[in-house]
């Protein structure tokens, strides 16, 4: 019997930077009524508030929800309000080096971007994120930019050489995330284990980037039973199946 269901957010529970739709909100609410749920994503806390919490009922079911923004570098639990348990922030010097490296790789890669929406490199405190078109870019534009992940795989290869002391992962549809070494979704899984007292074999992880180099892959490496999904619609069917199994 599984006691904790862990989800990625972008591309798994919702389209990139978009809110949960009505069907997903209903399914997640039902799941929270019968089992503990956690969400680990490359997005920062404001993104969780906008995409996730703004579309879930604010009732006792939130006590079953744990939130880990920026790939698990932060951990929030609900206790009459959301409380930050930890945040693995970069130093100023580390941030400057990572941003410099992103700029160097962007120049070396030569990928053409004709239009951007907002900042391309974002400081999230415990994570620096490159978004090729900017975080608010239309999802249709994002999906077209790197369909086969090849552009970001090349960026990751270059970044791994420039900043080997940090962890570099692909996230979302156009993003590359950099965190402290060892601070990734596997770290978040272990934090969930230690904080909630739930063994890893009692968890399921659901994500859309479980391939090597994807920012969900560390969760798989942590030996969690992992389910690869293509998009939120496939996640809905997975949640329905989990609810049916747990209800039985």
Keywords:
9 helices; seven-stranded mixed sheet; Hypothetical Protein, Haloacid Dehalogenase-like Hydrolase, Chain: A, domain 2; 11 strands; alpha/beta; four-stranded antiparallel sheet; 248 residues; Rossmann fold
Architecture overview:
The chain has about 250 residues and is an alpha/beta fold. The chain folds into 2 domains: about 5-90 and about 185-245, 3-Layer(aba) Sandwich (Rossmann fold), CATH 3.40.50; about 90-180, Hypothetical Protein, Haloacid Dehalogenase-like Hydrolase, Chain: A, domain 2 (2-Layer Sandwich), CATH 3.30.1240. The protein has helices spanning about 20-30, 45-50, 70, 90-110, 140-145, 150-160, 185-195, 215-220, 230-245; strands spanning about 5, 35-40, 65-70, 75-80, 80-85, 120-125, 130, 165-170, 175-180, 205, 225-230. It has a 7-stranded mixed β-sheet. The chain has a 4-stranded antiparallel β-sheet with strand order 6-7-9-8, with helices on one face. The chain is globular, with a radius of gyration of 17 Å.
CATH homology group of the largest domain: HAD superfamily/HAD-like
In terms of DSSP E residues, the strand content is: 15-25%
Structural class of the secondary elements? alpha/beta
- From the spread of the alpha carbons, the general shape counts as globular
Uncertain residue ranges: none
Q: Give the CATH level 1 class of the largest domain.
A: Alpha Beta
The CATH topology of the largest domain is: Rossmann fold
> How many DSSP H or I helices?
9
Number of domains: 2
Radius of gyration over C-alpha positions, nearest whole angstrom = 17 Å
Give the CATH architecture of the largest domain: 3-Layer(aba) Sandwich
- Please count the beta strands (DSSP E, at least 2 residues each): 11
